[in-house]
Specification:
The protein is 27% helix and 23% strand. It has a single domain, classed as Phosphatidylethanolamine-binding Protein (Alpha-Beta Complex). By secondary structure, the protein is an alpha+beta fold. It has 5 helices and 10 strands; from the N terminus they run ααβββββββββαβαα. A hairpin with a 2-residue loop joins strand 5 and strand 6. Strands 2, 4, 5, 6, 7, 8, 9 and 10 form an 8-stranded mixed β-sheet that branches. It has a two-stranded antiparallel ribbon with strand order 1-3.
């Protein structure tokens, strides 16, 4: 390839680079707004959490299926083994911690609360992250994973998976808080987070499981309309794409492949 053509291609690459990063940033911002809206629309805020301001996107994948989209209805049989989890931060400063705490709770059906708290299905202290994968081996299994078992006719139960950034490398068992693999599984999430002083919530997702036909009418939930989120600015132009994928967003590698592949091919000539 002649030098002038090579210089031109390098110039195009320099121009494309900020466009790629801008698209990624807009996509991430919209993705976070979408999961926030899902938590609010499903009543997880305020039923389970007083507020939810994530700084990263958490995705769960159960065996036999793809990525679980927020609020997706899953079968009980599919969710009996722990999911694989990945996390994508809004920026690299989000993942400066070395240890995290992973929690999964049954927040019951919309509009219903139990004075005994939620059902704790999974609590792990000292979780680590490697190449965006959430790793639980070598961690402290406060509550071993137990699959959802909602009673028949009790409606669609909301199962929230939450990731907290630990303030300290270890999390001492909170005194007077019977949580360690307890038989009933009941716990108050807010009380546990406060008593253990684990740190801020940085990401979360949720799915639903229902057995049989509900014998009552659960409280209505609000659907998430992505076109109303970030209605102004460059993010609005990609709202349709995100909606098409039901809240999923394209990875950075896809952007780079689409935009840069023709230039890289010419460089190889």
């Amino acid at each position: 390839m002649i030098p002038s053509a090579r210089r031109m291609i390098f110039s195009l690459l320099l121009i494309a680079s900020p466009l790629v990063h801008a698209a990624q940033s807009d996509n991430m911002t919209l993705g976070i707004e979408i999961i926030r809206a899902h938590f609010q629309g499903a009543g997880l805020v305020p039923d389970l959490l007083a507020n939810f301001t994530p700084t990263a996107l958490l995705t769960a994948t159960y065996t036999g299926g793809g990525i679980v989209t927020p609020g997706q209805l899953l079968s009980k049989s599919r969710t009996q083994t722990a999911p694989n989890l990945t996390i994508t931060p809004a920026n690299m400063t989000t993942l400066l911690n070395k240890e995290y705490t992973l929690v999964m709770v049954d927040a019951w059906t919309p509009g219903y609360t139990d004075p005994r708290g939620q059902i704790c299905h999974w609590i792990v202290n000292g979780v680590t992250i490697q190449d965006h994968t959430v790793l639980t081996h070598g961690s402290v299994q406060v509550e071993h994973y137990r699959g959802p078992t909602p009673p028949s006719g009790s409606g669609p139960h909301r199962y929230a998976i939450l990731l907290y950034a630990q303030q300290f490398p270890t999390v001492p068992p909170p005194q007077g808080f019977p949580i360690q693999n307890n038989v009933t599984g009941f716990c108050h999430l807010t009380d546990y987070v406060k008593a253990s002083n684990i740190g801020p919530l940085i990401a979360g997702t949720y799915f639903t499981v229902e057995e049989g036909v509900a014998t009552f009418t659960p409280s209505p939930t609000s659907p998430v309309v992505t076109s109303t989120l970030l209605a102004s600015g460059p993010s609005a132009s990609i709202a349709g794409t995100v909606a098409q994928h039901n809240g999923a967003f394209s990875s950075s590698s896809n952007y780079l492949t689409i935009i840069l592949a023709p230039f890289l091919w010419l460089l190889a000539l």
